[in-house]
Amino acid sequence: MNPMKLIFLTAAILPLASTVFALDGQFGIHDPATVTQCDGKYYTYGTGGNPLVSDDGWTWRRGVTPARTGAAPDVIHIGDRYFMYISGVTMISSKTLDPNSPDYKWEDGGSIAGYESPDDFINPIDPGAFLDPTSGRLWLTYGSYVGYIRLVELDPKTGKRLHPDERPTNIGINLEATDMIYHDGWYYLLGTHGSCCAGAASGYNIRVGRSRKITGPFLDNMGVDMLEGGGKLLIGSGDRLIGAGHFGLLNLGDAAAQKFSMHWEADLDRGGASVLDIRPLLWIDGWPVAGENMKEGTYEIESVRTGTALELAVEGVPVGGARARGGFGGRGGRGGLGGTNSFAGRGGFGGTNGFAGRGGFGDAGGTNAVAGRGAGGGGRGLFGGTGALVPPQDVKQVSTNWPAGNIDVRMANYLVQAQQKWTVTTVTNAGGYPGSPYFKITVAGTDRALAATADGELVSLPAFTGEPEQLWRLDQLTDGTWRVMPKSAPNSKEQVAISAIGSSSATLAKFNPDSDRQRWLFKKP
Amino acid sequence: MIKSRNILISALALLVASLCCQEAAAQRGAGRGTTAPPTLRAPDSPQKAPDAEGFLQRWLILEPINIGNQQTENSSKAAVKVEYFPSQLTVMPHDWDKVTVGSQELTWHAEDTVNYNVNLYIFANALNKSPAEALFWAVTVVNCPQDMPNVRLAIGSNASSVWWLNGQEVACVYGDRQTVVDDGVSKRLTLKKGPNVLRCAVINGSGATDFCARFLDEEGKPLKGFTLSVGDVAK
């Protein structure tokens, strides 16, 4: 076992305050198992058995320690059992992860993998379980920097080694915390490179290679075999978070909005503590890429389908105010006539707002001379602008013309106007969903809030009051666009999302992953 | 002989009927100005189904009302609230009915468009009327064999337009715009069994002006299974 990991076996979990860019509640953990759902709750377990549980995947609290603890467990739900694989590698299983259920009872599954011989060059830690969706076969990866990453097949009925006498397959080197996923005809081996357990000095980063066969070879995007140290970066350090490790794909049954769990070695907003995170998983050119959870800010919300943007149904005012369109500026005067082999002078430029007077005549030139220029008309012309910075539109000014009560929401060409800019703000104590809190969406600079209506449409209310139909779930989809769903819609039992049904109209409709109607861009305004 | 005579009489009757229709069409064409609009034709049947893409192709259209430049959203909203003639939001006119707007006598024309859209520019010019700075009223009757719930009206227009179904405003688009299929889409509606009156006001500034309309079902597909007419609304 990696000696550094021993430090965390008995480490206390610090209670963690919630902030905007992280999970909420208590989410300190190291080497988390894949976040797994059981009866509507989310569970994970870390090194030392540190258990976390959440009702919504956003706000976490301490859970119940399982029957066996160890380093870097992984959990997988197959049929009516939850199998937990623990570094070593051993296994325990239970019919439920809910300690309040009468079915909660961990049963010993024994040793699954380890040293194949007394001098086997292997560190059998960090197991990762994978159920192949194409065949129903169950597999386990394990290993660390000492020796290889190995692959063995398990019996999906028992969770135990299917062929105990078969030699494992070596599939990677110089990584740990591996797991596998399947996508579109490829098997992807994800693992963590770099140094662990050094706080903000941790070099941990998650990398990936892929193969058409589950037994490899797994090559990265440059064709380097993961048996030779290859791996395309999935996610590394950034923002205030250092040391990404221990990938696990959540099984949410939502192919359009995939999410993965992981940990950060050091969250700088939490004193450098090791914390759980849940991020969107994108797919770009056949490779998984780490997405982002929504961040607070002001955005243009643009339909991928129509290219038009959400706005209040009010008359817009051009930024800078309505200006009379000027006519074409007048032509400048004729330059004087040149003499022999000379050039005539150039006329001047026309003025603004109507026809300017003509410039005068330039002087005549003599032989081989250039004639003088005609006088200019002055002004900037129709396309010349004002010559000064045009400030952003002041919403306080233009909103005086808006109705006071509810205002319909529609879509239109984006013209950087006040009624087209939306501020996304987290709402505290309103719950969330895996990786993210619920947000309110308000017209920037106002409290006018986007809401779902009882008849499945959209409206803007004069002020945010916190009702569920005013709370929004923003999931990044696998192509990087966003799905926007109300926490709940009045009179609706099904989950609906904002849907562009015409160039100028948006509604709420059941999410269709095959359509671009419900995909949105959140763009800098 | 009698049989041959009957056949001859039938053939002559058919010929006369055909000539009458052509004469009627020619009269319409003549009444419109120097040439019949190329994309608009007089209806030749009592009912018309929407086209393959669901577009509504039968309308009664009033000759344009000059309203000046009303291109902004607020001025367009105000323009459709003006009463240009009595009962303009409830009237069910007939072909060649006349109304007086200001000092002008304007005529309703029953038209079938051969395209997905109704070209008001061509309509007006064929009548030697100006389509610029104008408001056009159009109305049709949507006849449904049964209630059709959870449908939406999808419209496009150049430029602003406001739409009413059975007297309720259900859709609108404003501003200087081109006609785009399914530009504005209403909230979910129910077309009731029997006749449903669909009315629109289209406001043009200058240049081209036209509109298109269809209904979409719950899946967003063009709605079929109904017909259009421009006769009396059945009671």
In short:
The complex is a heterodimer of chains A (525) and B (235). Chain A is mostly beta strands and 525 residues long.
Keywords summarizing the entry:
heterodimer, A: 525 residues, mainly beta, Trefoil (Acidic Fibroblast Growth Factor, subunit A), five-stranded mixed sheet, four-stranded antiparallel sheet, 2 helices, disordered N terminus, B: 235 residues, alpha+beta, Jelly Rolls
Strand share of the residues of chain A? 35-45%
What is the count of structural domains of chain A?
Answer: 2
Largest contact between protein chains? A-B, 15 and 18 residues
Mind telling me the CATH superfamily name of the largest domain in chain A? Glycosyl hydrolase domain, family 43
What is the class of the largest domain in chain B in the CATH system?
Answer: Mainly Beta
| Rg measurement of chain B, Å | 19 Å
| CATH class category label of the largest domain in chain A | Mainly Beta
The number of helical segments of chain B is: 3
Strand content of chain B: 35-45%
Biggest sheet overview of chain B: 10 strands, antiparallel
Overall pLDDT metric of chain A? 88
Describe the structure.
The complex is a heterodimer of chains A (525) and B (235). Residues 1-20 and 325-378 of chain A have low confidence and may be disordered. Chain A has a 5-stranded mixed β-sheet, with no helix packed on it. In chain A, strands 6-7-8-9 form a 4-stranded antiparallel β-sheet, with no helix packed on it. Chain A has helices spanning 3-6, 395-398, and strands at residues 24-25, 36-38, 41-45, 51-54, 59-62, 74-78, 81-86, 90-94, 107-111, 128-131, 138-142, 148-154, 169-173, 176-183, 186-193, 205-211, 232-235, 241-249, 258-267, 273-284, 287-290, 297-303, 309-312, 407-412, 422-426, 432-433, 436-437, 439-443, 449-452, 458-461, 472-476, 482-486, 496-502, 505-510, 520-523. Chain A is built from 2 helices and 35 strands. The longest helix of chain A has 4 residues, at 3-6. In chain A, strand 6 and strand 7 (81-86) form a beta hairpin. Chain A is elongated, with a radius of gyration of 31 Å. In chain A, 2% of the residues lie in helices and 36% in strands. Chain A has 525 residues and is mainly β. Chain A has 2 domains: 3-292, 5 Propeller (Tachylectin-2, Chain A); 298-318 and 391-523, Trefoil (Acidic Fibroblast Growth Factor, subunit A). With 235 residues, chain B is α+β, with helices and mostly antiparallel strands. Chain B folds into 2 domains: 1-32; 40-229, Jelly Rolls. Helix content of chain B is 20%, strand content 37%. Chain B has helices at residues 2-32, 73-81, 120-126, and strands at residues 40-41, 58-62, 65-66, 98-101, 104-113, 117-119, 134-144, 148-158, 160-165, 168-173, 184-185, 189-191, 194-204, 210-216, 227-229. In chain B, the strands form 2 sheets. In chain B, strands 1, 2, 3, 4, 5, 7, 9, 10, 13 and 15 form a 10-stranded antiparallel β-sheet that branches. In chain B, strands 6, 8, 11, 12 and 14 form a 5-stranded antiparallel β-sheet that branches. In chain B, a hairpin with a 2-residue loop joins strand 9 and strand 10 (168-173). Chain B is globular. The relative contact order of chain B is 0.21. The model of chain B is unreliable at 17-34 (pLDDT under 50). Classes of the chains: A mainly beta (525), B alpha+beta (235). Chain A binds chain B through residues 314-316, 410, 412, 455-457, 501-505, 507, 517, and chain B through 72-74, 152, 154, 173-175, 180, 182-188, 216, 220.
